[in-house]
Amino acid sequence: xxxxxxxxxxxxxxxxxxxxxxxxxxxxxxxxAICDKSPATRERxxxxxxxxxxxxxxxxxxxxxxxxxxxxxFLHRSLSExxxxxGANVLSEKPMALTVSDCAAMIEASEKAGKxxxxxxxxxxxxxxxxxxxxIREKPFGEPRSAFFHRCDGRPARPGNWILKDALSGGVTLDxxxxxxxxxxxxxxxxxxxxxxxxxxxxxxxxxxASYNLQYPRMYVNLYNEWxxxxxxxxxxxxxxxxETGYLIFDGSDMVVRAVSNGHEAAVxxxxxxxxxxxxxxxxxxxxxxxxxxxxxRPQESMKSIELCRRCMAEIRN
Length: 318
Hints:
37% helix, 10 helices, eight-stranded mixed sheet
């Protein structure tokens, strides 16, 4: 199975580790080429993998089975459509695209080509989130009543970079909150209503801190996401899901989910060593190999998560 990369920045390194692990486990996977516009990035991978600058030239020459797209968000649609035109299956980084119409076009191109499309939503393959799904399904603490998903990173780039431009990235909402918006939909479905509060730093024209409330019948979900501080020393991955008779709480610093009821820990789930990037790549490559649909992370669901994020963003009052 030949895999080609378009875009080879930070997240591509995480994906590459996943493919390498699959190779070590005996899977028939070859990284056949890495394409990136940056000379420095190409130089970094030269001698390890075949590198090139032009995506179409690479696709024409290599004819890969899978194209892993780790390019900027505003290129996801056009690069996916290009990959499908050369008969490849596509794993594209989140967010799926900037707009719902772009997402729909990607799905249409996938279906027309008869090839698989999956958006790399690692939280759908994350062991701590499997615990939430279990408690919602089995109801040991009754029905959920509220949930809080908080995610704080350092600023991903300096002003002038594409990710800090609204028309190219969608800001902290599409870059970061998309993880938790997609998780909220996965666990609870689409909310009846949404409200929002957000701010932006003075040196950029994009929201870099946002809080969204999703209202459901008899429960609500809060999403808090920000990357307004450079070199953030206290990055946060946190969730708490409250049920009728207990709650689940998780702090990404120790990778442990605690189930608490009646003032006591009813269970502790140690998730250390979980690699959601590997999990998603193992799943997608197995789907391609076996000719199975990507039911665990359908592109239609990824499109609906973009729709929810855009719905939240529309509620921001300047």
